[in-house]
Design brief:
heterodimer, A: about 160 residues, mainly alpha, 2 helices, B: about 280 residues, two-stranded antiparallel ribbon, about 75% helix, disordered C terminus
Chain lengths: ~160, ~280
């Protein structure tokens, strides 16, 4: 044959390559390809799941935010009410305290007045008794009854004028 | 200061040793009488025709390339089995270095097959993967210079299998046959006919492979033949004509095979569409 082409060797080379191609495909190419394909699918699935989860998360987040906003509003309202209540109560307390204070003052004034009157009265009585005693003593020692009476009247008059 | 001195010293030492080596080499080269066992003509002729160094392959007298081819196949299959048994079960979702290399290789041929043939991609991908790996490693194989006994009794370095015209033709015709059969399987006799119209494909494929590998082989043979050129040049030439050829030929054959395969297995276009056009 020209160029030293030899059919037996040509077939030997073909056989060699067929063996190699089959072997490599089965042993190396397909398992690796299978592994890569499976991984690709796994990642794709994981990606889809992630996206779904992200969507759900976004929804949940929106819901939570809404709820939080509502709660905040509620809290604000409650606080306002509470403040109002507190102010009202404080005013009530204050008013009550003022009233009580005024009452106390009034009581005290009245009591003081009473006590003053009482003191005055008892003082007058005591003075009167003292005077009578003194006068009796004096009278026993000195004057008659008529003079006594005149003196006594005089004293009362003066005392009345002074009081 | 000290560093500078040591640097200067180093440079001096390198130049000095290099000078001695160059002078010694020149003396050796010029002083040796040319002792040639084979004339350059014989080396070249053997490079093309392989009719000198026959080897024994299970009782058959064959060219060294047959031995190379089977050694490469045995090595690759062994490697594949090792990877299958030890590496693939341990593959992780986030690949390590080794896994990345394997995956990249598979992915490269898969993408090429997918890009050129949209139907029945699995088969052609596996085929061009095998063909690519075979051509690449059988070309690289030449660099290892594996020694083998010839039938005559002396040892020689095994060549790249594809540098033998028989291997190149086998490769071309196997690929063509694969495309033809796939066309018939996919589209019936019509598909077969469609492939047959590219009847020059196997011949061009075979001779492209053979020519490319042979040219590299001849240039390297030439360079290796001359002692005077055997200092730095063989490294450059070896890399250029072996590694680059390996990569380029792998790419070319894989692309061509997948393109023609894609055409062969493509389902026929509906007639309505043709009328519209």
């Amino acid at each position: 044959m020209p160029l030293n082409i030899d059919f037996v060797q040509l077939l030997l080379h073909m056989l060699n390559f067929v063996i190699l191609a089959g072997g490599l495909s089965l042993i190396l190419f397909k398992p690796v390809r299978k592994f890569m394909k499976e991984r690709e699918e796994r990642f794709k699935k994981a990606k889809e799941e992630n996206e779904k989860a992200a969507e759900e998360n976004a929804l949940l987040k929106a819901e939570y935010e809404k709820k939080i906003a509502e709660a905040n509003e509620e809290i604000q309202e409650l606080r306002l009410t509470a403040e109002q209540d507190a102010a009202d109560q404080a005013k009530e307390y204050l008013d009550a305290a003022k009233e009580k204070a005024q009452e106390i003052i009034a009581n005290a004034e009245r009591e003081a007045e009473e006590r003053k009157d009482h003191i005055l009265e008892s003082a007058q009585n005591e003075i009167g008794e003292l005077v009578i005693e003194a006068t009796q003593k004096l009278m026993k020692e000195t004057a008659g009854e008529a003079e006594n009476r005149a003196l006594y009247d005089e004293f009362i008059r003066v005392a009345e004028e002074n009081s | 200061m000290k560093e500078k001195m040591s640097k200067g010293k180093k440079l001096f030492l390198i130049i000095w040793v290099a000078l001695i080596l160059v002078i010694l080499a020149l003396i050796l080269i010029l002083g040796l009488p040319p002792k040639e066992t084979e004339s350059i003509k014989e080396v070249m002729k053997d490079g093309v025709l392989h009719d000198l160094n026959k080897m024994n392959f299970f009782g058959l007298s064959v060219n060294p390339a047959v031995i190379s081819a089977y050694l490469v196949t045995a090595g690759l299959l062994l490697l594949a089995v090792l990877i299958r048994v030890f590496a693939i079960p341990k593959f992780k979702d986030v690949p390590g270095k080794f896994q990345s290399v394997i995956e990249k290789l598979v992915e490269f041929f898969w993408d090429m097959a997918k890009g050129n043939s949209h139907h029945r991609t699995n088969f052609i991908a596996a085929y061009i993967f095998s063909a690519g790996v075979y051509i690449f490693f059988s070309t690289i194989f030449e660099l290892f210079g594996v020694q083998w006994m010839t039938a005559a009794g002396h040892s020689m370095a095994l060549p790249a299998p594809i540098a033998d015209i028989n291997a190149a033709i086998a490769m071309g015709f196997t690929t063509f046959g694969m495309i033809l059969v796939s066309g018939i399987v996919a589209n019936g006799p019509k598909g077969g006919l469609r492939v047959m119209k590219d009847f020059s494909l196997p011949i061009s494929m075979s001779f492209r492979l053979f020519g490319a590998l042979l040219s590299g082989l001849l240039v390297t043979e030439l360079v290796y033949y001359s002692v005077k050129l055997s200092f730095v040049l063989p490294v450059v030439v070896g890399v250029l004509f072996t590694l680059l050829h390996a990569i380029i030929q792998t790419y070319v054959l894989a692309t061509l095979a997948s393109v023609f395969y894609g055409e062969a297995v493509e389902p026929p276009k509906p007639k309505k569409e043709k009328k519209k056009k």
